[in-house]
Specification:
Layout: E1 2-8, E2 13-18, H1 20-30, H2 43-65, E3 71-73, E4 79-85, E5 88-94, H3 101-119, H4 126-133, H5 138-161, H6 163-167, E6 170-171, H7 176-195, E7 204-212, E8 215-221, H8 227-236, H9 239-246, H10 249-255, H11 259-281, H12 297-318, H13 350-353, H14 360-381, H15 407-427, H16 437-440, H17 445-448, E9 460-468, E10 471-486, E11 489-496, H18 501-522, H19 534-550, H20 555-568, H21 580-599, H22 602-606, H23 611-625, H24 629-637, H25 643-646, E12 652-659, E13 664-666, H26 684-705, E14 710-715, E15 718-727, H27 756-765, E16 774-783, H28 788-803
Parallel strand pairs: 6-13
Antiparallel strand pairs: 1-2, 1-5, 3-4, 4-5, 7-8, 7-11, 9-10, 10-11, 12-13, 12-16, 14-15, 15-16
Helix pairs in contact: 1-2, 5-9, 7-23, 10-14, 11-12, 11-14, 11-15, 12-14, 14-15, 18-21, 19-20, 20-21
InterPro entries: FUZ/MON1/HPS1_longin_1, FUZ/MON1/HPS1_longin_3, HPS1
Protein name: HPS1 biogenesis of lysosomal organelles complex 3 subunit 1
GO molecular function, one term: guanyl-nucleotide exchange factor activity
Length: about 800
């Protein structure tokens, strides 16, 4: 029962996200309002009706009192958290008790951060932001909302599963030798190859990094001053990137298994594919637009059945080969992660043929993994001599797909089909209630249709902080290319686009007009600023040059001329509060210019790295990491183990160490997923320890917000400690100064809601201006029977032990 809504002051829904339980609750609540024989109201209309009284009451309270409530709970135990940002009201709701008020507040600020990353300085203008969040075109709105819904879903999942997203820091793979080799390779070969190519279309590679699932292997940046914050903001504020890297990790469990094991699992996939294809084949043609052009569900089923049957035969036959002839197979490291095999049940219907620990819903995740494993098997078998491949059916293999169909298109189509067929099975009603094409493209289609897959060669436009020679820009446009090397391993490139200097100028002028607007707002009634003020003349000369460079036909020219006439003409009004509307108009025009240059879809289509250049870059890195691939996939699951610390720190259960200066963290692997291979396993103990860690982090943040840098408390049979301290660059601990106390309605502690730790470093630097100040955090959980003196000694020794590994150079 979770929901997040963005609405305007006029109660217009700008964006919403709701989980299936909340959606079903809304439908049950409003289905009785439909006329007899008529269709039920669209979901967006229902959610608008539900929240309209809250939105209107908030607007009324702000207009009359200048303030509004920030949270409340209802009789049915629903918790509502509200935040007003300019003209947009954010509302987060939870009705199942899984999220606290603090969690809802953090989700709101994360959503605000995501809009800034995707829209840049357009978010500084409320009218423009409203238009971007709710485009007039229904298809465009569906794609945008689906994208942000995926963002929130991925963020929520990662924050529940990944410690690095919990503490909002980056976890690096602890392998210094390989890390240094990769950094040197990124600098001397990859970046130079891209920047020296004529196919880069005016873009310049600034940053390159390699991720293994959500963990960082190597990061190279040509601008050292912003690399630390850029690394954290890129990984943490762009969860789709990390989410897409997490999902392929399931393929590791299959691709690294023996052929015999895989062949037993394939029949379940065949039956599941058949059920999905049959379900989709009964839909009208207007509702199967997600399929590749010229490919029907029946044709897709034929291709899939033939391909998987060939793979099954290959796996069975390869399993009979001598060990000396199967060296091409991946090592069987994850055999225990596969579901328990039940061959006797594989020939029954879909609900029976699945292994015991698999539901139809999660099969949609396993099927792509199985296909990747089959593809890997076929490629490996193709290297065998002809005399050893007689078992293969004639002209059948996964590589012999129709020319119009790639493996990626096959996976995308299967994913959508499973979401449709499984959704229908769960609801026990047809997936689509209307067959009228005009109705189908209405708002309810957002709940049933997936957005069409993007061109893999098309970059994402992200807006990140940058410091250049000419100035600072908090939302500098970058093009981000995510190039998959193998499932779970990705190369990410951040490039500077050719007209990025416009963003620096726009930010400078926005800052000038904001300061002028603040000065005008503070004036007493009837007072005025002197026209001869140096800042006004400086603004005039720079703005004139900027507008001339844009061209005389731009709307900016007319708005600027109007502003100049009001301020500098002899007969014009004084520089008083009467100019406030003109300042706001200038700010809106600047944001609109920024939108036209960087947010609109047009420029990005023709200005990007050529697909051939992207492929060359991908192959270069693949060649470099080929021998390390399997090691990295294992390392990402067991990066740091608690076993290596138990002998030195007996009684310690878990720890998290964060270097807030670089945004890096170190913690033992802690995962309770089905494919976990940590020391705790996947049973109740692992889930219990995980809940303790998440609870301790929340408690530590609460007290840090109240100004406490040291917290120790007993939680049942466990003893938890939290420390925050600052040091000089040489490791000398600086004088402890209590941080400022934050109000309850302030942004949550972290770096997604706002960069709390950067502000904290500035606060500590005031008393140590001649030194480089570094900030660290340490959270530990011990067994409660350990004496407190030993626990504190452990914490001190652990901090000293971890101080060196955290300083592995990024560049």
């Amino acid at each position: 029962m979770k929901c997040l809504l963005i609405a305007s002051e006029s109660a217009e829904v700008l964006f919403y996200w709701a989980d299936p339980d909340f959606q079903q609750s809304i439908r049950n609540q409003y289905e009785g309002s439909q006329e007899e024989g008529g269709r039920p109201p669209a979901f967006e209309d229902s959610i608008n009706t539900l929240f309209a009284p809250i939105i209107i009451s908030c607007s009324t309270m702000i207009d009359r009192m200048g303030d509004s409530y920030t949270s409340f709970s209802t009789e049915d135990q629903h918790v509502y958290v509200l935040r007003q940002f300019e003209d947009c009201l954010y509302i987060a709701v939870n009705g199942d008790g899984e999220e606290s008020e603090e969690d809802l507040k953090r989700k709101i600020y994360v959503m605000k951060k995501l809009t800034e990353v995707h829209f840049g300085m357009v978010t500084l203008s409320s009218p423009l932001l409203r238009r971007e969040l709710r485009p007039h075109d229904t298809d465009q709105r569906n794609r945008l909302w689906r994208k942000f819904q995926s963002l929130l879903g991925t963020y929520s999942r990662l924050r529940e599963q990944d410690q690095s997203f919990l503490v909002e820091a980056v976890e690096r793979l602890v392998q210094p030798t390989l890390c240094e080799q990769c950094i040197e390779f990124l600098e001397r070969r990859l970046v130079q190859t891209i920047n020296s190519s004529a196919e880069r279309a005016g873009e310049e590679a600034l940053h390159a990094f390699i991720l293994v699932h959500t963990k960082l292997l190597a990061f190279y940046s040509r601008t050292f001053r912003t690399v630390q914050h850029l690394m954290c903001s890129t990984l943490q504020s762009h969860p789709p990137l990390a989410g897409n890297l997490v999902r392929p990790c399931q393929s590791v469990c299959l691709s690294a298994c023996q052929p015999a094991c895989l062949s037993d699992f394939l029949p379940a996939c065949l039956s599941a594919c058949q059920s999905a294809c049959l379900a989709v084949s009964s839909l009208p043609a207007c509702q199967t637009s997600f399929l590749p052009v010229g490919l029907s569900p029946a044709c897709l089923l034929d291709v899939l059945l033939a391909s998987l049957s060939a793979c099954q035969s290959a796996c069975l036959s390869v399993s009979r080969l001598p060990a000396c002839q199967t060296s091409f197979l991946p090592p069987c490291r994850f055999l225990a992660c596969l579901p328990v095999r039940r061959p006797s049940c594989l020939s029954v219907c879909l609900s029976v043929c699945l292994p015991g620990c698999l539901s139809p819903a999660c099969l949609s995740d396993f099927l792509p993994a199985c296909l990747f494993a089959c593809q890997s098997a076929c490629l490996s078998v193709s290297r065998l001599p002809a005399c050893q491949t007689s078992f293969l059916p004639v002209c059948l293999s996964l590589a012999r797909l129709p020319a119009c169909l790639s493996v990626w298109q096959l996976l995308d189509a299967l994913s959508v089909m499973f979401s449709l067929s499984i959704g229908a099975e769960q609801a026990c009603v047809p997936v689509f209630q209307f067959v009228d094409p005009d109705i189908q493209v209405a708002e309810d289609s957002l709940q049933a249709l997936e957005a069409p897959p993007m061109d893999p060669a098309m970059p994402s436009r992200v807006f990140l902080e940058a410091t250049l020679k000419d100035g600072f820009c908090p939302m500098m446009p970058h093009s981000m290319y995510c190039l998959p090397l193998w499932p779970g391993i990705t190369l990410v490139l951040l490039t500077k686009i050719h007209n990025c200097q416009v963003a620096v100028s726009v930010y400078y002028f926005l800052n000038c007009f904001t300061q002028l607007e603040r000065k005008l707002s503070d004036l007493q009634f009837g007072a005025a600023l002197p026209r001869s003020q140096h800042s006004l003349h400086d603004l005039r000369s720079k703005m004139d040059k900027f507008v001339r460079a844009l061209g005389s036909s731009s709307s900016m020219q007319h708005t600027w001329n109007d502003f100049k006439n009001k301020v500098f003409s002899r007969g014009g009004p004084r520089v008083s509060k009467e100019l406030l509307p003109h300042c706001r108009n200038m700010k809106t025009q600047l944001c609109n210019l920024y939108r036209q240059c960087f947010v609109a879809d047009g420029p990005r289509d023709c200005q990007r790295l050529a697909p051939s250049l992207q492929e060359r870059a991908r192959l270069l890195v693949q060649e470099q990491l080929l021998d390390w691939k399997d090691f990295l996939l294992v390392k990402s699951r067991r990066n740091v183990t608690m076993v290596s610390y138990l002998e030195e720190f007996p009684g310690m259960v878990h720890f998290i160490y964060v270097d807030r200066t670089t945004g890096q963290m170190i913690a033992p692997s802690l995962s309770v997923t089905d494919h976990s291979i940590s020391e705790l396993g996947t049973g109740p103990l692992a889930r219990f320890i995980k809940s303790k860690v998440w609870s301790c982090v929340g408690t530590a943040r609460h007290y840090l917000q109240k100004g406490y840098t040291t917290v120790t408390f007993r939680d049942g049979d466990y003893y938890c400690c939290y420390f925050l301290w600052v040091e000089s660059e040489t490791g000398y601990k600086l004088e402890v100064v209590d941080p400022p106390v934050l109000s309850d309605d302030s942004a949550p502690v972290g770096m997604l809601a706002w960069d709390y730790y950067r502000k904290l470093l500035r606060y500590y630097t005031k008393n140590h201006q001649t030194e480089v100040v570094k900030c660290y955090e340490l959270l530990t959980i011990h067994l409660g029977v350990i004496p407190s003196e030993c626990i504190l000694q452990h914490c001190y020794q652990l901090a000293c032990k971890l101080w060196e590994p955290s300083r592995i150079p990024l560049l």
